[in-house]
Amino acid sequence: QVQLVESGGGLVQAGGSLRLSCAASGSIFSINAMGWYRQAPGKQRELVASITSGTYTNYADSVKGRFTISRDNAKNTVYLQMNSLKPEDTAVYYCSNSLVWGQGTQVTVSS
Prior knowledge:
Elements: E1 3-7, E2 10-13, E3 18-25, E4 34-39, E5 46-51, E6 57-59, E7 67-72, E8 77-82, E9 91-96, E10 105-110
């Protein structure tokens, strides 16, 4: 059973940066596509970025050019580097392999 644990969230001013980490247990991590999702209060959960096992990446239009997803298979970890943060990026961020979800980490961007 794969387990996912996110970390790295926090409070940051607009224009700042954060790096989220998602540590996975389970030896099949390297063959799983992984995604970062977010859910703001009163809104539906949305896909922010995804990365395949072959490191092909995809981004939501709202974060293109500001966020970068990456993975380190040796560490069973996927990252989300978030730059030029905006108040509208405020949400709980989750990582997932589409079957298993982490508990989420809160990101708050103040104006």
